[in-house]
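Posted in: Structural Biology > Protein-Ligand Complexes

Title: Requesting predicted complex, zinc ion in pocket

I'd be grateful if someone could produce the 3D structure tokens for the following input. Sequence and ligand are given below.
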Amino acid sequence: MTIPTASIPPAASPAPMTYRCPADGTRAPVESLAWHCPTCGGPWDLDFTPASPVPLNSLTARVNSLWRYEEALPLAGPAAGVTLGEGRTPLIPLTDSISAKLDFLMPTLSFKDRGAVMLAELARRLGPGRVARVVADSSGNAGTAIAAYCARARLPCTVYVPEATSPKKTEQIRAHGAHVTLIPGDREATAVAARTAAGEPGTFYASHVHNPYFLHGTKTYVYELWEDLGGRLPDAVVVPAGNGTLLLGAWLAIGELHAQGLITGRPALIAVQAKAVSPLAAAFRAGAQDLPGDAPHRTPPTLAEGIAIPRPPRAAQILRAVRESGGTFLTVTEDQLRAAQLDLAARGLFVEPTGVACWAAMSAHPPQEGRTAVVPLCGAGAKTGLAAR
Ligand SMILES: [Zn+2]
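-- Reply #1 --
Done. Output follows.
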């Protein structure tokens, strides 16, 4: 089968960009394909500040995808090419004070498309001379999103998943043309296998955790809120917190909009974890700047498997962002997750258990009188079905 590629313009060279380690300041050119800081092993930030503000009043004439915020994106330009029409998800009221942004209505049915499109476009622009293949590791939505966007960009892709991953998930990854490598053992063993492969020449590690371009994609979640609310943001932006990819993207966008004078105040970030796996909430309550060095690698099971991350590499950044925003952490029980999924389904919205966590939290802790909050519904219920009762 031949898939036409004419809809994707030729790749422009990426503007020269530099990765910078937030912990020790180490730098590396993006072209080096270095996927983490060689000094400390931590994730990169990107040395990037938008050159000009996004013009609110001229957005309506623009392309209907997240590429419409081109001033804010490190890969913007006339050749911005890879897209499946991601973004521009609806914002609907759930109560007088809480609205939901329906990010499960994405091309691969989760918010991860926001970051995956950026990684695929970056790999494409780095060019076949540098990038022979893309690798990713995920047992869930990120792997699916990377596989789909690599298919769109015509990039060879390998996704490492734990051996126990459900066949339904691996089927979709394979259907997108990606190679699936099953790794015996747990999620950590899978990550180790992917990182080993990432060290091979010509390999682009499309890590949604370590690569900061992913965060510059997820930040469009907040740019869309800002556009939809006529140049304002809600009082609270409620986000799930596992690896913090949506949280840190939101914090990036809030910082950019505030620095450019496009918003007056900064909303509070309300971060939500499953009570069963809540290392960040515990560290926040303890006043810690980072997770303790002896934080466990293994966690009890939770319905919110997408945010069941015992040792998120960006923990220090997540804790700092929530504190600087004046926000807080909330945790939700398994019973609250089940109830929230049923409640949303009864309102016409079928969302996977991880994706209902923020609504579960705000149902129990609604905003104060006169304040507003937005919760993301992050992934489609069709991906997982209804949580067992
Ligand atoms: Zn470092």
